[in-house]
């Protein structure tokens, strides 16, 4: 059994249906292929409400009471404050959620899969903020937006997003004309916008959670301020366009890409499993379940240590490329080494348990966000130092 | 945009805080309790209005009336069910009951409505005033052009109407005069033949009606969620205390001071400190109370 702490309620509950459907589709597909070690896989999902204390309780319950073999969830805002607790737990956490730069050099097996003494037990199947904010900054500069205004919330996640963006943007010639930090949940951001738009800039970056961002962008629309909006990764939601209206058209969001080698395989199976919309965290959810099940199959064991030691080997190297658990199970039965080719990214775990991939640019047009282009992994890699991510 | 625009924003914020703060301060002045559950009355009003607009559906003005009626009924029912029975036990049990009731109400709202925000579908029309005479003083733009939206006008206009009606109620009606008498000296009012329980009930209803109205006005500006009232209760409390606790006129004054400070501090704080506008409002609150513990308006406005 895999435990999945998730946002059944709370700040990111609008993203959970896609993540849940992807995990459930992966479990069905794995069980149709005979299941890991011939057993039927199950996902038990519990609500953390994106609250660290609740996440601690839920994770403990999944491990202690539900006997989860691995955890396939947890957000940055839960992992970062619970870091020491999660390390003491010594349970593989392969999560599709976290973007925090905190994880850039934390997690994974340090490229020594046989030795778990130096391991840190968190792995993520989604590209981190360093990657997709880098992609966003690269795209902004390519579009000629050399001067920026910023409005961001005053929490760690929103600041981390801005810091990640600026580390690439400013290092490559971009400059910030004005940055206004605001309290989240306010009933109005009109004063903050008035201040921001007194400055001269080409585009403005909005790094806020959805509800606050809708308030701020509605105020922006009412004020007729214009200029190019660049939105943080969670804002590519239909609700944002529906509430803000047509003034938002042309705004773009950089999200974790959907460019893994097995994306088409994933999409075909996923679309038959339900009607939840695919978001940036949906393919990584599929990948987290697939790669963890493959680690069990290769290990021949469901102990936390065995899974931890096999996540690297099934994702790296020159083994037979496999797109699904079914293909991997067959290859392993034939005595071959395997390399899982993910849906979101190639799912080649770095020494820090991270993945690297393309960044998708989604633009608001014709009443919806649609993917208009991608910034390739190679282009982003130019700005993200290997070994430090 | 400059000072003039931020004054508009401050007046809008001050307007809906003022409407809520009047109800809050009436409870304090006449029932003699700080009701921390009051924020949840706003949330209930906002959700009732939203339900009326989306499910019945009715025009927004009708939904506002339903929200006000619902707020009044909820306020009276909770007073009768919880506060009146323990009214004689002193202020601390009343305070603790209101805190507990607020938590319970918020949880119940969350259970029914979920945590996600919901939105009123109101069409915004923006009015621009770009051709005003240039009255710049140094780098401060006084009237160099600003905009107001239809929602701004609704909020400010409604607040002005509420103030006029409230003034008439307190000065021209038997109930209002009795409320003021009870606020000054309940024992004396009772001796003079005022039905104090009836007046208390009237205050609960009036406070709930104002909370329902304020809840809808807040929600059409932004959204409504289970945390709408809770996230505003400190501003409402601050406005009431700043103006002079128990004084409805003082609450209006305090609310506009809070609204203007929030707007202007965001606009003029140094870069890197713009997220501290609420803190500035509370620093000013503390500073005023250090100088004048009875609040800005103090006793003399209450007696006006």
Keywords:
heterodimer, A: 389 residues, alpha/beta, seven-stranded mixed β-sheet, three-stranded parallel β-sheet, 14 helices, 14 strands, 38% helix, globular, B: 304 residues, mainly alpha, 12 helices, 2 strands, 3% strand, disordered C terminus
Give a brief outline of the structure.
Chain A has 389 residues and is of the alpha/beta class. Chain A has helices spanning 16-32, 52-65, 76-79, 83-89, 129-142, 156-169, 190-196, 210-223, 238-244, 263-273, 282-299, 304-311, 325-333, 377-381; strands at residues 2-6, 43-47, 70-71, 93-95, 122-124, 147-153, 175-182, 203-207, 228-231, 252-256, 320-322, 338-340, 359-365, 368-375.
Structure overview:
- The complex is a heterodimer of chains A (389) and B (304).
- The longest helix of chain A is centred in the C-terminal third of the chain and has 18 residues, at 282-299.
- The relative contact order of chain A is 0.16.
- Chain A has helices at 16-32, 52-65, 76-79, 83-89, 129-142, 156-169, 190-196, 210-223, 238-244, 263-273, 282-299, 304-311, 325-333, 377-381; strands at residues 2-6, 43-47, 70-71, 93-95, 122-124, 147-153, 175-182, 203-207, 228-231, 252-256, 320-322, 338-340, 359-365, 368-375.
- In chain A, helix 9 links the parallel strand 9 and strand 10 (252-256).
- Chain A has 14 helices and 14 strands.
- A 7-stranded mixed beta sheet of chain A has the order 7-6-8-9-10-13-14, sandwiched between helices. Chain A has a 3-stranded parallel beta sheet with strand order 2-1-3, sandwiched between helices. In chain A, strands 4-5 form a two-stranded parallel ribbon.
- Chain B is an all-alpha fold.
- Chain B has 12 helices and 2 strands.
- Chain B has a two-stranded antiparallel sheet.
- In chain B, helix 2 packs antiparallel against helix 3 (60-83), helix 9 packs across helix 10 and helix 10 packs across helix 11 (277-291).
- Chain B starts with a helix and ends with a helix.
- Chains A and B meet through strand 7, helix 7 and helix 8 of A and helix 1 and helix 10 of B.
